[in-house]
Amino acid sequence: MTRICDIDGVPLAERHELTACLQCGRCTGGCPMGLRSPLNVRLLLYEATIRDDGDALLGREEVWDCTACRTCADRCPRGLEPVQVLRDIRTRKIEGGRIPQSVMDALESSLKHGNPWGRSRMKRTAWAEDTEVRSLEDDQESQRLWFVGCTLAYDPRCQDSARALARVFQAAELDYTTLGNEEVCCGSELLRLGELGLFEELSETNRENFRELGFTEIVTTSPHCMNTFRSDYGLELPTRHYSQLLAELAAAGKIPFGPETSSRRVVFHDPCYLGKQNGVYDAPREVIDSVPGVERVEFDRCRERSLCCEGGGGRMWLEGMGEGERNAQIRVRDAAALGVDAVVTACPFCLLTLEDARKTAGLEDSLEIIDLAELVAGALGG
C-alpha cells in the first residue's frame, strides 16, 4: 500500500503530531469557510491520523477552500497547526497533477514572470508612470525598501491604492526606494497553495536582492508580504506594514493633512494577515483617527474576531470554490447596517473581495471600499 499522504517519507500524523489532536472540533467551529464549504478540518485531521494511505485525503477537493487565516491554529487547545496539514495535502495534490486550472495558471505565471497575475515582468512598474515613485534606477542610496507587491503592481483597482501611498510618502518627504522591475513575488500565496519548490526559488531571489542592496528596513504594502518575510523567510531585517509606518509619521506630525472639509463615518476591516497572524491592530486605527473629519466605528466582529474575507490561502485564484453567501458579502452588509460611508482596509486581497461583494450586494451607490492609504491621501493638504 502506497502511503501517498506522506511528505518526504514522513507520515502527516507524525510530522504534525496529530495524535495529540483531541478531536474537540474547535478548528472546524472557527473555520471561516465552515458555513459554505464541505471543509471539515477536524475530520481531515482524523483521517490523516488513522489512515495508512492518503487516497481519501487527496480526493478531498475542499482542501482548496482553506483561506490559511490560521483561526484553526489559534483555537487549538493543543497548539497544533491544521493549516500546515492542509498545505501538505495541497502539495501532494500538486505533485500528482490534481490541481485546478486557475491555480496552475497562477503557478506558471509566477515561474515565467515573477508574479501570479499573468503579466509581463517589464510591466511591473507601469502603475508608477507619471508619479515620482523612486526605484533602484534613480535611487541607489536609500536603505528603506518599499516592497510594493504583485497585486498592487498589476491589479487596476489596487494600483490606485499604490499610487495613493506614493503620494503620502511624497507629502511626508519619506526616504525610500523600490526594486522597480527587479521586484518578484514574495511567494506567500504559492506557499499556501502548496508549491514549495517555486516558493523557495522566489524567496532566494528576494533574499539575495535584500542582502546585496544593503537595506536596513522593509515596508510592505500587503500584510501577506510582511507575514512571509517575517514568518516564512525568517528575515532578521526589520519588516513592517505600511500602516505601522503611517502611524509613526502621523504621530510625529509628518503627514501634512489639510483642513477638515467634510465629515466621514468609516469602519475598519482587520485583514487576517495583519491582525490575527501578526498582531497589528492599533496602527491602522491610529492612522484613521488622525485623519481630519473622520469618525471611526467598529464591526461587532473586529480585531482578533474579525471575519476573514476569504482572499487568502491562494483563493484569489480559486474564485469558483465554495457555495452560498461569501464572508465578504456578509461584511459589506454588516457595514451598511452600521450606517457608515466607507469600509477601510489595508490589504489588497481584502480590498478586492470587499469591492466585489459591494457590487453583488447592490451597495455601489451607498458604500465605498477604500484602502487606508487612499483615505490618508484624500485628506492631504495642498
DSSP strand tally = 7
Do you know the CATH topology of the largest domain? Rossmann fold
Mean residue pLDDT: 91
N-to-C SSE series? HHHHHHHEHHHHEHEHEHEHEHEH
Strand arrangement, major sheet: 5-4-6-7
Pick out the low-confidence regions: none
CATH level-two architecture of the largest domain: 3-Layer(aba) Sandwich
In total, the number of domains comes to 3
CATH class bucket of the largest domain: Alpha Beta
Rounded to an integer in angstroms, the radius of gyration calculated over CA atoms is 21 Å
Describe what this molecule looks like in 3D.
The protein is α/β, with parallel strands linked by helices and 382 residues long. The protein has three domains: 84 residues, Alpha-helical ferredoxin (Fumarate Reductase Iron-sulfur Protein, Chain B, domain 2, Orthogonal Bundle); 147 residues, 3-Layer(aba) Sandwich (Rossmann fold); 122 residues, 3-Layer(aba) Sandwich (Rossmann fold). Helix content is 42%, strand content 7%. The chain has 17 helices and seven strands. The strands form two sheets. Strands 5-4-6-7 form a four-stranded parallel sheet, with helices on both faces. Helix 15 packs across helix 16. The protein is globular. The mean pLDDT is 91.
Tell me the layout of helices and strands.
Blueprint (H helix, E strand, L loop, with lengths): L11 H4 L10 H5 L10 H10 L4 H4 L12 H5 L6 H14 L5 H13 L30 E4 L2 H5 L1 H16 L16 H6 L2 H18 L3 E4 L2 H10 L6 E3 H10 L12 E5 L13 H9 L3 E4 L29 H12 L3 E4 L2 H13 L7 E4 H6 L5
Parallel strand pairs: 1-2, 2-3, 4-5, 4-6, 6-7
